[in-house]
Each structure stands twice: as C-alpha cells, then as structure tokens.
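cron nightly-structures :: item 1 of 1
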Amino acid sequence: MNKFLFHIRKIALLVSAFIEHSKGKLKGEHRVEHKVHTARKASPHYKGKKNISKKKPFFLRFSTQEQAVFAKRLAMILRSGMPIMQGLHMMGTQAQSKSASYIYKSLIAHVENGQSLSSGMQKFSNIFGDFCINIIKVGETSGTLHENLDYLAEELKKKKALTQKVMGALVYPAVIVVATITISLVLTVYIFPKITPIFQ
C-alpha cells in the first residue's frame, strides 16, 4: 500500500513539473512574440494598420494649421533622435485627410530615394510656398533642421492668427455691403414700382 502511494505521489510530482515547464515555455514564447512585434513597430518601414493614400485627390489642400502641426511634430521627432523616415511614416499614418495622406506619401517616397525633404516639398510649392521650403532647405544645409522647423511652426501660427484677424475685420464691412445691396434691390424691384403710380 505504501509503495502504491509512493508511485502516485511520484506521478503527481512529474505531472506538476511538466505543467510548470509548459507554462514557462508559453510565457517565453509570448515574450519573444512581443519583442518581435515591438521591433517590427520600431522599423522605419512600419506603417501600422492605416495605409497612406496613394491616389491624388481631385482638390489638393494642406491648410496653414496643418503645415504648422507638420513642422512642430517633425521638429519634436527629430529632436528625440528618431530618423526622419520613421517620423514621416508615423505622421503619415495619422493624417486626417486624403490630401495630407497623399502629401506624406509623396514626401516619404522622395526621401526614400535619397533626396532631401525640401526638394520633395518643392513638388507642392503652391501649397507650402517658397518661404517654408527655403527655411527647411537652410536647416538641412546647416544641420539645424529641427530648430528651423520650430521657427517655421511659430511663423505659420502667426500667419494663421493674422489671417483670422483680417477675415474678422472684413466680416462687418462685407455684411454692410451685402445688406445695402439687398435693400436697394428690394426697393427697386418691389417698393418703387408700387409707390410711383401714387405720385403720377
């Protein structure tokens, strides 16, 4: 009887050891899988779940606000030591519009071919303008790209604020002009034709 209990305990210990070994192996596999996934995400060619639009929109638009955000985020990415390609991929997957996604895709392709960011932006000179492109070009040449991008972001914010002030100042005169024209048309078309016979 004692020998039988001894064998039962021995089998139980072996089963327990096998289960613990299996759990450790599974945890190790999970750790390896997690490391592979993390390394894949850190790759400069990792694009995440969202694809960057490759089709050119009919109406291409990249507002001053979007340009300011682009410059500010890219400056932060470069300051952190992240490669520009990885930063552009990251920003491209977070683009909120088809136009922005297409512009990021074009810039990424341009930089991947070994050309500079400023020369890639030259393709969209009607959107970015010579000022933005030249500021970035100077930063690339002097090695102070992140500083120039910070400066550019601030200038774009000032430009947007000035535009909003001008638009706000023009709203009141525009309303007065529209109201004057509307009243003149109403008087000419409806009121005067009815009043004129009274004075004849």
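cron nightly-structures :: done
The longest helix spans residues 145-195.
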